[in-house]
Amino acid sequence: MSRQMISRRNVLLGSAALSTFVAAPAILRAQAADISVGFVTGETGPGASIGVPYARGIAAAMGYVDNVAGHKIRLIKMDDASDPSASTRNARKLVEEEKVDLLIGTSGVPGTAAMAAVATEQKVPLIAISPLPPTVGRGDGGYWALSIPQPPPLMVAAVVEQMQKAGVKSLGYIGFSDAWGDLVYDALTKTATPVGIKILTNERYARADTSVTAQTLKIIAAQPDAVMTGGSGTPGALPFLALRERGFRGPIYGTHALINPDFIRIGGAAVEGVLAPTGPVIVAEQLPDSNPVKKIGLEFRAAYLKVNNAPTTDAFSAYSFDGWLVFVDAAKRALASTPPGTPAFREALRDAMFGTKDLVGTHGVYSFAPNNNSGVDERARVIVTLEKGQWKLLG
Question: Is the pTM of this model over 0.90?
Answer without folding.
Answer: no
